[in-house]
UniProtKB/TrEMBL annotation:
Protein name: Interleukin-17 receptor C
Domain (SEFIR): residue spans on this chain: 499-649
Subunit description: Homodimer; disulfide-linked. Heterodimer with IL17RA. Heterodimerization with IL17RA is independent of the cytoplasmic tail. Associates with non-glycosylated IL17RA constitutively. Binding of IL17A and IL17F induces association with glycosylated IL17RA. Forms complexes with 2:1 binding stoichiometry: two receptor chains for one interleukin molecule. IL17A homodimer preferentially drives the formation of IL17RA-IL17RC heterodimeric receptor complex, whereas IL17F homodimer forms predominantly complexes with IL17RC homodimer.
Keyword Secreted in record: no
Source organism per UniProt: Ursus maritimus
Length: 706
């Protein structure tokens, strides 16, 4: 990869760095050495023949590092060319040997010399240069005194001036010795153009060059071309890809001066700008100002696409080369991070726009490729989701093979790789024996293997089905229990609903008593109470007898009860009916449902059909228990409000609440009745006192008629 001469750290809105170069006068090549060394440059160029590597007979000089510097070779003050100065650093390679018959230090051995005090270590160093269309090789002879020789240490350097090259060219350098004792050194570098050097007044080809600057204005980037009026020049924007040829993006021939605007979304690290005058053999200036721009790098990753190509290929598409790493991972269903796998893909820089092979034996939808940059996940794609389907609930087994056919297995889970047949509380540990049997019976798919490891994908469908079968069985049992409870509750609610229907019959004494009856009917809520006070319109339209028949039939069909509310007037009407039914056949008033109902009520009592269908009640202080006709004592008769708890319990039937709650309910009803009781002359606060100190709660027994 070419190494740039300088870092064009072009922060938008600032001027680029410019290099000032040393000038060398004259066309001759020269060589000079560091102190302690002597060197000589052979006249003319030599053939570039590196030859094969041979063993060193003893200590030898070898090049260890190449260093370059740009200078100007000038024929006149304003007529210069760009030139490359090369410094070759040398070191001693090898160790001394006992002198035998061979030559040492380039001359015959003298057995009388105990040590080579006046000897020199000599080397012939070849320096090769290539820059299209030029290729040169020069030879330098270097000598170092033996006193300075220390094996493995540097002895100095030799500097060559210089190789001429064109602006913007790519140069390649090699250095080795003759004979060659090691691999040759090499260096590739990209020379700057007129824009990066202070050479506008020294190199004639730069005089007519359009000068370009880059500046920023918010989200926009401005390319400002400093070109004289009506000068014609070419401008090209291109993507400079290290891996592959450059890609032109925009090219146009223009006339200066010009100011061109780019949107920040068009920026990429490899976006370069080239400008040149429209003249024969003109020098082109190129800059790539966005290599360090964070916006350009964000745009590059947004534009990058990861493609998976059946059967086992993958490709990363991007406008520029990317410094990225790719890994293979396993994505379990249900979310969570994708777990890295062996075999790892190449950790070297990913080659963009090139199809690479995945090292797999078989494909699986849970296998994915991840592309990361600076340890940050950028892209992830699972294998051919369109053709292989959705992620599977398979267990990935990692097999490790040891010597003597020993092997160990573990299952990849979110917590790590769990050994099979372990005591861990994970799904793989619980199903360890079953998974091992599946692997041995060939039910698992082999994804990859080498000499030491292998990957297997084992289906978990049957174990999931077994688990869900137990869950469904438990759900069915729970649903059955809930259904039975619902039926039981429904029957209970129905029974409670039937007990809450009541028809309240009374004889209208006066307005105060009617208010008392209305207060009682309201206080019995949520029981469904029917009373003629609330149905005067229907009563007038149908007549008392027809209204009573309809209400009585509906109440009894719903399992309700008819409540006879006795008062002095009601007792008098009953006595009249019992003594002479014909004289009492006509109702006493247009709204007197009680008088009209006696023609239906008395037969039920006389024929024994009243128990379970009727209740009796009277108010304390308004009527004595002995005043209730004996015929009506065949059903429970309660004194109100002293016997309200028993009255409410009998009225609600089987669905009545517990005695404690009945007591609280009775107190609420009694408080609701108290204002109406106070307005009845023969009653008063004795009613509430009677509730707080109730008398006998048993119903009145049958008595003979007076």
């Amino acid at each position: 990869m070419p190494v740039p001469w300088f870092l064009l750290s072009l922060a938008l809105g600032r001027s680029p760095m410019v290099l000032s170069l040393e000038k060398l006068m004259g066309p001759q090549d020269t060589a000079r050495c560091s102190p302690g060394l002597s060197c000589h440059l052979w006249d003319g160029d030599v053939l570039c023949l590196p030859g094969s590597i041979v063993s060193a007979p003893g200590p030898v000089l070898v090049p260890t590092r190449l260093q370059t510097e740009l200078v100007l070779r000038c024929h006149q003050e304003t007529d210069c060319d760009l030139c490359v100065r090369v410094a070759i650093h040398l070191a001693v390679h090898g160790h001394w040997k006992e002198p035998k018959d061979e030559a040492k230090f380039g001359r015959a051995a003298d057995p009388e010399l105990e040590e080579p005090v006046n000897a020199f270590l000599q080397a012939q160093v070849v320096l090769s240069f290539q820059a299209y269309p030029t290729a040169r090789c020069v030879l330098l002879e270097v000598q170092v005194p033996a006193a300075l020789v220390q094996p493995g240490q540097s002895v100095g350097s030799v500097v060559f001036d210089c190789f001429e090259a064109a602006l913007g060219a790519e140069v390649r350098l090699w250095s080795y010795t003759q004979p060659r004792y090691q691999k040759e050194l090499n260096l590739t570098q990209q020379l700057p153009d007129c824009k990066g050097l202070e050479v506008r007044d020294s190199i004639q080809s730069c005089w007519a060059l359009p000068w370009l600057s880059v500046s920023a204005d918010g989200d926009d980037v401005h390319l400002v071309l400093d070109v004289s009026e009506e000068q014609h020049f070419g401008l090209s924007l291109y993507w400079n890809q290290i891996q592959g040829p450059t890609k032109p993006w925009w090219h146009k021939n223009l006339t200066g001066p010009r100011n061109i605007t780019l949107n920040h979304t068009d920026l990429f690290p490899c976006l370069c700008i080239q400008v040149w005058p429209l003249e024969p053999d003109s020098v082109r200036t190129s800059i790539c100002p966005f290599t360090e721009d964070p916006r350009a790098h964000r745009n590059l990753w947004r534009a990058a696409r990861l493609r998976l190509l059946p059967p086992r290929g993958w490709q990363l598409n991007a406008p520029c080369s990317l410094l990225a790493e790719a890994t293979l991972c396993w994505q379990a269903p249900g979310g969570g991070p994708c777990q890295s796998l062996v075999p790892p893909l190449s950790w070297a820089n990913v080659t963009v726009n090139k199809t690479l092979e995945l090292p797999l034996l078989n494909a699986h939808p849970n296998l994915c490729v991840q592309v990361s940059s600076w340890e940050k996940l950028q892209l992830q794609q699972c294998l051919w989701a369109d053709s292989l389907g959705a992620l599977k609930d398979d267990m990935l087994l990692v097999e490790t093979r040891g010597p003597q056919d020993n092997r160990s297995l573990c299952a990849l889970e979110p917590s790590g790789c769990t050994p099979l047949l372990s005591r861990a509380s994970t799904r793989a540990a619980r199903l360890g024996e079953e998974l091992l049997q599946d692997l041995q019976s060939g039910q698992c798919l082999q994804l990859w293997e080498d000499d030491l490891r292998a990957l297997w994908a084992c289906p978990m469908d049957k174990y999931v089905h077994q688990r869900w079968a137990l869950v469904w069985l438990a759900c069915l049992l729970l649903a059955s229990v809930l259904f039975l409870l619902f039926l039981f509750k429904k029957d209970h609610v129905k029974a409670a609903a039937r007990a809450r229907a009541a028809l309240l019959l009374y004889s209208a004494e006066d307005s105060g008593f009617e208010r008392l009856v209305g207060a009682l009917a309201s206080a019995l809520f949520p029981l469904r109470v029917a009373v003629d006070l609330w149905s005067r319109r229907e009563l007038s339209a149908q007549g008392p007898l027809a209204w009573f028949h309809a209400q009585r039939r509906q109440t009894l069909q719903e399992g309700g009860v008819v409540v006879l509310l006795f008062s002095p007037g009601a007792v008098a009407l009953c006595r009249e009916w019992l003594q002479d039914g014909a004289s009492a056949s006509a109702p006493h008033g247009p709204h007197d449902a009680f008088a009209a109902s006696l023609s239906c009520v008395l037969p039920d009592f006389l024929q024994g059909r009243a128990p379970g269908r009727y209740l009796g009640a009277y108010f304390d202080g308004l009527l004595h228990s002995e005043a209730v006709p004996a015929l009506f004592r065949s059903v429970p008769v309660f004194s109100l409000p002293s016997q309200l708890p028993d009255f409410l319990g009998t009225l609600q039937g089987p669905g009545a609440p517990r005695p404690g709650r009945l007591g609280q309910r009775a107190k609420q009803v009694s408080r609701a009745l108290q204002p109406a009781l106070d307005q009845v002359p023969s009653l008063g606060k004795d009613g509430l006192t009677a509730l707080e100190g109730p008398g006998p709660t048993s119903s009145l027994g049958p008595e003979s008629l007076p």
